[in-house]
Amino acid sequence: MPVSMNPIRSYRKQHGLSQTAFGRLVGLPQTTVSSYESGVRNPSHRTAKRIHDKTNGELPIHALLPDIFANSYVQAHDLRQPITQKEVESTEVV
Predict the structure, then answer these.
(1) Where are the domains of the chain?
(2) Other C-beta atoms within 10 Å of 89: how many?
(3) Using one digit for the tens of pLDDT, what is the confidence trace for 20-45?
(4) pTM to 2 decimal places
């Protein structure tokens, strides 16, 4: 099953924008756009709001912020897949 595309990358592709051009649109350096798309970093709430505003609401704030329940959320199709040792070891317990 394909992994869903990052919302910033999806927006850029739909509008034919490079990371640099998107960065100019929203006031961010290309390196920051790249780190958001790759998941290395997440935008702050303030930055997510600015991106939302500069894209005329096409990128909703909630889509730009990290999923605080990402590690505990299990999708239905995941229940049919055995968990790997790597997944067990990488699971953070809070």
Answers:
(1) 7-64
(2) 7
(3) 999 999 999 999 999 999 989 999 99
(4) 0.67
